[in-house]
Amino acid sequence: MDGKLVSPGLYQQQMTFTPLGPFAGYGLGTERLGDFIGHNGWIPGFTGIATRDPTRGVTIAVQFNKSVDEQYQVNNVILLELTNVLFPGEMPWWGAEFP
Questions:
Q1: What is the value of pTM for the model shown?
Q2: How big is the chain by its Cα radius of gyration, in Å?
């Protein structure tokens, strides 16, 4: 996410995060988990998340074809577990409780 596809004002709104906890926040259509910025969502039968860490140059996308009651939490847990495998000991949220 570098602001090349939207106006500077809209990009600023997307990257201004309302805190949702110590490592999470929500901007205009964007979600932040630590250094990862992206968006998650679902439609009946499918759920997923696509997120990027611009400092590491890493993008993670997770898709699966089962709707679950708490699909946003499932997406975030999968993201957190993947970052644990990819970057052992580097993410600030390991061991933190998430709502």
A1: 0.73
A2: 14
